[in-house]
């Protein structure tokens, strides 16, 4: 899949009134904060969050990548709003102890901003 095509019109506005992680570059919603499994993963550019699910992402090419925990079949994921590389998607783990990552997303902490859906009380 080409990552250079213009996909800005495909961005969905998901999860109104829920705390989310958004793209730090264009503010597109990427995931619910509740979808975080752990915040202790290592990404390519620093800390990463392992997430159950994510939205407004497009998959790059599938490839075998040697990571800290072994070889995994992954695909980089890119923001639909601005094409920023946000992390990767785990397709397959070669080691049985790493199978829990399959179907999950590793999102780079430095590419995300927390949106806490603050609501001011009416006075």
From TrEMBL:
Residue stretches making up the Yippee domain: 19-116
Coiled-coil blocks: none
Highest taxon, organism lineage: Eukaryota
Keyword field contains Lyase: no
Keyword Metal-binding: yes
InterPro entries listed in its UniProt record: Yippee, Yippee/Mis18/Cereblon, Yippee_fam
One example GO MF annotation: metal ion binding
Keywords on record: Metal-binding, Zinc
Pfam family, one: Yippee-Mis18
Family of the protein in this entry: Belongs to the yippee family.
PANTHER family with a match to the protein in the record: PROTEIN YIPPEE-LIKE CG15309-RELATED (PTHR13848)
Name this polypeptide is given: Protein yippee-like
Organism: Mycena alexandri
């Amino acid at each position: 899949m080409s990552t250079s095509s213009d996909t800005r019109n495909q961005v969905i506005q998901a999860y109104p009134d829920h705390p989310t992680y958004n793209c730090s570059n264009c503010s597109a919603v990427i995931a619910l904060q509740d979808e975080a499994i752990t915040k202790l993963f290592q990404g390519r550019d620093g800390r990463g969050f392992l997430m159950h699910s994510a939205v407004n992402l497009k998959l790059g090419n599938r490839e075998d990548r040697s990571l800290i925990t072994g070889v995994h079949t992954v695909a980089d994921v890119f923001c639909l709003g601005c094409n920023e590389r946000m992390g990767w998607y785990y397709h397959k783990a070669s080691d049985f102890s790493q199978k829990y990552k399959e179907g999950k997303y590793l999102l780079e902490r430095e590419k995300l901003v927390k949106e806490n859906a603050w609501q001011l009380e009416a006075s």
